[in-house]
Amino acid sequence: MASFVHTVGNLVYRFDSLKEVMAKASPARSGDFLAGVAASNDGERVAAQMALASIPLSHFLNEALIPYEQDEITRLIIDTHDAAAFAPVSHLTVGGLRDWLLSEAADEASLRALAPGLTPEMAAAVSKIMRVQDLVLVAQKIRVVTTFRGTMGLRGRLSTRLQPNHPTDEPAGIAASILDGLLYGNGDAMIGINPATDSIASICALLEMLDAIIQRYDIPTQACVLTHVTTSIEAINRGVPLDLVFQSIAGTEAANAGFGINLNVLQEGYEAGLSLKRGTLGQNLMYFETGQGSALSANAHHGVDQQTCETRAYAVARHFKPFLVNTVVGFIGPEYLYNGKQIIRAGLEDHFCGKLLGVPMGCDICYTNHAEADQDDMDTLLTLLGVAGINFIMGIPGSDDIMLNYQTTSFHDALYARQTLGLKPGPEFEAWLERTGIFTQADGRVRFGDNLPPAFRHALAQLA
Amino acid sequence: MDRHTPTHDNPWLALRNLTPARIALGRTGTSLPTGAQLDFQFAHAQARDAVHLPFDHAGLRQQLSDRGRDSLLLHSAAADRHQYLQRPDLGRRLSDDSALKLREHAQANPGGVDLAIVVADGLSALAVHRHTLPLLSRFEEQAAADGWSSAPVILVEQGRVAVADEVGELLGARMTVMLIGERPGLSSPDSLGLYFTYAPKVGLTDAYRNCISNVRLEGLSYGMAAHRLLYLMREACRRQLSGVNLKDEAEVHSIDSENSSNKCGNFLLGEG
Asked: What confidence score (pLDDT) does residue B4 get?
C-alpha cells in the first residue's frame, strides 16, 4: 500500500493509503465524520485534495480500496476494466483528468468512449477536486440514452417517474395520483410504486393494475413496483406482466448482502426481465436505486468514504445495462448528509460520476424533516441538475410522499424545470401528451388543453 | 379562466376523496397557487418544530406522578439536538452519569423486573407529550391481569430506540417497551412509535425488536396499539424471543384482508 505525503509551505501532510487520501479529500459531510474517516480540519482536507490531484490514474488500477479477494464488486471493476478505452487518459493524474474533462478534448463522443475505461474510484477521485460548476459542466456534455417503451436521456429532454404511493396500497388512491400526474404531463420515465406491503399477492395485483392502465390509455411509458428483485422474479414466474426489474444496490459486496442480493441474483433478475421481451424500442429494463451512506448504514464501508462507496454502486449498475438509475440523495437522513448544502453537492456528485461511468442517472431530489433542508434547497438542486442534463427526476403530488414520509419533487416542479430550461419529456410521451390534448410545449412554454381528454373525462364520470 | 384570477382549479377535485395525497392542487401557469404553496410550508414548519421541540420531561414526570407512577430521568450520550441528529451512535447509549444513576437504582432494587417502560423524545417530543399518558393508561388497564412487575418509567432525553437495550440490561429487565417520537411526516408531526424487545442487552439489532408504528389520533388508536403490544408480549414470554421470528406469525392474520382489497378495481379501469 502506497503512502502519500503532501507539503504546503512548512506543513507536511501524510496519508497512509489511497483510501485515506480519498476520504480526507472529500468535501465535508456528516456521514464521513460519523464513520471517522473525514479530514480533521479544512487544511488537511485541501492538502488531501492536492495530494489526490497528483496521483496518477494508473495507480488506481494497482491499489484497490477494498481488497480484490474480499469483494466481488472490486473484482467486477478490475476484471471488466477496458484498457483500450482508458488509453486517452492513462498518462494523466487525477488533477490532469479534471483539466481534460473540462477541456475541448472532452465532448459527447470522446466521453462516451472513455466511460468503460474509468473505474468508479477514478470518477469519485476527480469529483472530489471539482466545484459545483465543474460537476455541472462536464455532466452536461454527456448523454446516456436508453430505451424500453420510451426513450430516456436525449439532449433537451427531462423525464419524470410518476410515484403514486399510498399508505395502504389502495388501488383507487394510487389511480387518483396517477391521473393527477398524467394530467400534469408527468410519468414518461415510469409509473413506479413503492409498495406499502411486500406480500407477493399484493405486488402482483399492483403490477396487473399498472399494466392495465398503460394498455387502456396507450401510454408510452414503463411500469415498476419497487420490490425486492427476488419478488420480481417470482412475479415473472407467475406470468404477471412486469416491465422494469427494481433493486436497491450499494457499492460493497457486504452492503449488498444486507440488501439480500449479489451479482448473481441481479443477473437472474435481469435475465428474467429480458425473457418477457416487453420493451418495444429496446431492452434496458433494470431500475436501480442508490444513495450515499447506504454502505455505512449497513456497517459495510471498509473505511471507504461514502461518496466513493456510492460511485462503486454505479459499476454494479452499468454491468446490467439499466434503463435508469436513481440516487435517492436526501432520503437517508442528516447523519449522512446534514443539510441542504451537503445534499446539493452529493446529488451533483452522484449525477456526474454516474454519467461519467456511462450510467443513465436520475436523482430523487429529496429531504426528510429532520434534515436542515427545505423547498428552496430542492429548487436549487433541481435547477442545477436540469442544467447538468439529468435523465429523470421524481414527480409526486405536491412534493409530499404520504407513504414514505419525505419530500421530493412535485409534478409542478418538473414543469418549472421544463419551462425555465426549455426541456421536454421523452419524444414518445411528448407525442402522447399532444395526441391526448393534455398539453403541448413550444419554445419551452407549456400550453394546457382547454378540456380534459375524453378518455379521462369518461373515467372521472364514473365517480360521479 | 376567471378574469379576476390567473389560477386554474383542476376538474378532478373529486379524486381527493380517494387518497390523502396532495392531488388536484390547481395551478397558476405551471406553478402552485399561493394557497397550496403556503399550506405546504406550514406543514413543513410544523414537522420541523416537532423535531426541535425540547422534551418536557418535568411535565411528563408530574403527570406520571399524579397517576402514582415513579419515574427516573436519564440522558443519552448525545449532548444536544445538533449532535443527536448527526451521531445516532451516541443517541443509542446512556451518558456516563445516567448509566451510573441507573446502576445505583438497580443495586438498591435487586432481582430485576419483568418490564421496563422507556420513554424517549426521539425525533418528535410532541408525539411523546401527547400520547404517552393516554397510551400507558390503556396499556396498564389491559396488562393488569398479567401481573408483570415494573420498573419506574425511564425517561431518556435525546434518546434513540436502542438506548432501551442498555436501560433494560442495567435494570435486569425481561422485556422493554420503548415509546418514542417518530420522524415527523409532513402531515403527521406527532406520530408515536412503540418498540418491544425481549431479553434486551446492548448491541441487539433491529431484527430483535418488534415495532408498532403510527400511534396518533389520525393513525393507530391507543386501544389497538396496546392490544397489539400485549399480544406480542404474551407471545414473546411464551416463546422467549422477540423480533423477526415473532413478527412472522403475528402478521399472518392481516394478509388475507390485504389481498381482498387489492382485488378491487378502480375508476381508471372502469371496474370499480
From this structure: 75
Average pLDDT over residues B100-112: 96
Q: Which among B10, B12, B20 has the least Cβ separation from residue A402?
A: B20
Q: Do A176 and B19 touch (CB under 8 A)?
A: yes
What's at B100, amino acid-wise? Answer: L
Q: Report pLDDT digits (tens) over A419-445.
A: 999 999 999 999 999 999 999 998 889
A53 pLDDT more than 50: yes
Reported as a pLDDT band with limits 50, 70 and 90, residue B256 is very low
C-alpha distance from residue A211 to each of A142, A219, A223, A229, A297 (Å): 32, 10, 7, 18, 35
The answer to whether the CB atoms of B85 and A338 lie below 8 A apart is yes
Please answer yes or no on whether A369 and B19 come within 8 Å at the CB atom. no
CA distance B104 to chain A (A): 32
Give the ipTM.
0.95
The residue count for chain B: 272
Closest CA to A389 of A135, A196, A95: A135
- CA A82 to CA A125: how far, in whole Å? 19
Q: Do B8 and A212 touch (CB under 8 A)?
A: no
Specify the CATH number for A146-448; select among 3.40.190.10, 3.30.420.40, 1.10.260.40, 3.20.20.70: 3.20.20.70
Q: What is the CATH number of domain B55-246?
A: 3.40.50.11240
Give how far A219 is from chain B: nearest CA, Å.
Answer: 13
Fold classification of A4-141 (topology level): Annexin V; domain 1 (1.10.220)
Note the pTM of the prediction, 2 decimals: 0.93
DSSP H/E element including A125: helix A120-128
Query: B48: which chain A residues are within 8 Å (Cβ-Cβ)?
Result: 369
Task: State the smallest CA–CA distance between residue A355 and chain B in angstroms.
Answer: 29
Beta strands A445-448 and B7-8 are: unpaired
